[in-house]
Amino acid sequence: MDSLVVLIAAPGSGAIDARILTMLRGFGAAPVRWLAEGEAAEVDTFERLPEFRAAAAGLPIDVAEVPKANRRKRLLIADMDSTMIHQECIDEVGVMAGAGEAIKAITYRAMRGEFDFSESLRERVALMRGLDESVIETILRERITYVPGGRALVSTMRAHGAHTALVSGGFRQFTSAVAARLGFDSYQANDLVIENGKLSGAVREPVLGKDAKVAILHRLTGELAIAPEDVLAVGDGANDIPMLLTAGMGVALHAKPKVQEQARITINHGDLTALLYLQGYLRSQIIE
Q1: DSSP code, position 14
Q2: Number of C-beta neighbours around residue 225 at 10 A
Q3: Which of 84, 109, 279, 281 is 20 to 30 A from 101 (CA-CA)?
Q4: Separation between Cα atoms, residue 138 and residue 149, nearest integer Å
């Protein structure tokens, strides 16, 4: 077989238990190899995999099929909002500007791919005009929380020679802090225009959207002298879809429905350490 099936359970659930192992045997799978006992395992691809997926639906377990070849990636390119952090930073700024509900509604529709990301970004930023730039530091300090496994993902891949890049349709003012906190090698994002200590209601052009994310992926692979097949990309929104489809391993993490429909790999139960298990890392090899 030239591919593997990776099972990843919700952290701490121990959901890959004796019942799951019995199910796998019943569908003709070979014995599993543990990546993290009870939490992550792999097995050679088997003919009745679609039947197993159907039988396991509803359990807190993600089932992904990955090629055996070139499994460990040399570039991680990650979205930020609702991927590395739980929040959408633009929504948090909107709350501080008193336009939270209006901005959240636009964000929701944009991330579902219902209308153009760049135009929606300009529309939302315009609602922030006049807000003091100090709110950025307040949000970073009081409102931003990190998706579990992010630091481990970045640290482990860097320790094994990969470059890690945070690429966001959000704002540099947040991305720089998140990248530093998690240990990314590089970051790129949109830039809020600030004049006399206040948000001007504009974003510097050109807007970094879905096409720019793919362009950055290609630029980084060129600089690193690697191929797109050597890239692991992760994101959750519609503007991440082209990036996920370009990368050798594109993962939709707790993603919007449109993204899950198109991505080759979806993770709905695991955290960011799932991306390490997909690459074949053992629990003992993960750097916390």
Answers
A1: -
A2: 8
A3: 84
A4: 24
Residue 238 CB neighbours (<10 A):
22
Total residue count of the chain as it appears in this document? 288
Tokens of 116: 């153009």
What residues are labeled active site?
79, 81
Q: Which two tokens stand for residue 31?
A: 């014995």
Q: What's the CA gap between 251 and 279, in Å, rounded?
A: 12
Q: Name residue 61's beta-bridge partners.
A: 9
Task: Provide the β-strand partners of residue 198.
Answer: 132, 195
Is it true that the peptide bond before 242 is cis, omega within 30 degrees of 0?
Answer: no
CA angle 212-156-62, nearest 5°?
Answer: 75
Q: Could you give the CA distance from residue 108 to residue 87 in angstroms, rounded to a whole number? A: 12
CA dihedral 277, 281, 285, 288 (to 10 degrees): -30
| Region of residue 261 (phi > 0: left; psi between -120 and 50: alpha; otherwise: beta) | alpha
Q: What is the pLDDT of residues 62-115, one digit of tens each?
A: 999 999 999 999 999 999 999 999 999 999 999 998 888 888 888 888 878 877
Whether the Cβ atoms of residue 126 and residue 202 lie closer than 8 Å to each other: yes
